[in-house]
Amino acid sequence: MSIERAAERLARAEHVLVVTGAGISAESGIPTFRGEGGLWRGLHAQDLATPEAFRRNPRLVWDWYRWRRGVCNEAEPNPGHQALAELERRAPDFLLLTQNVDGLHPRAGSQRLAELHGCIDQARCTICGAITHLDELQDGDDGLPSCSCGGLARPHILWFGEAYWEGTLDVGYAFAARADLVLVVGTSGMVWAPAAVADQARRAGAFMVDVNPNPSELSDAADLWLRGPSGVVLPELIRRAWS
Ligand code: OAD
How confident is the model at residue 34 (pLDDT cuts 50, 70, 90)? Predict the structure, then answer.
């Protein structure tokens, strides 16, 4: 059975790389980007999470992020997030790369973690570049978050079409070179960089396991595809690996 094979590999692995996407938070009630429920007032994430959308209508983009932040902050980590925090405690060497900005991995206890696309609770000044927790920012006269320098703040999130922040991916590629197992969870694999780090690990010899109820861009390349929701599959995988 696939899950048995994956559990055996996991129990033996020294360097475990995990790449997660929106799907791991689906069971916490946070809509994925490309799945059903990814619409807000009839708009797709792809229409809102862009520098052009923010230039055109910062209020609309902030309204969406305020809504999304509320959804994220009210959500709770699910058994999939908790299983990865447990895996971090058990694996000799571990790194979690997430595309998610919802903060559920750190809230579940993950520490060896890189949030590649930023964090829903943070804003960045469009003028001076200062990064600040949203709770510490006042709204300007226009009702939008304003930096202490007076500049308009934007969500500190990597948007479609933007380059990764300098150094963000380096830690992932460095780990990929030594990983012996790479677990890809809840991502369509359509954003090239996280998928490329996972693929780099595979090509360097890591055993690749994809956890997803649907086929992803990475399922074919993976050594094993564990088909199912991550909140069910991951706890079962950990249980079998260390039973
Ligand atoms: P997507 O919305 O593209 O894909 C979500 C994936 O989760 C799909 O493959 C689903 O099949 C899968 N899925 C759904 N429910 C699941 C469950 N219960 N358990 C496991 N998997 C499940 O989201 P991402 O791949 O994360 O980036 O998209 C990556 C990036 O797209 C986002 O981080 C965002 C956007 O561009 C930026 O904003 C820069």
Answer: confident
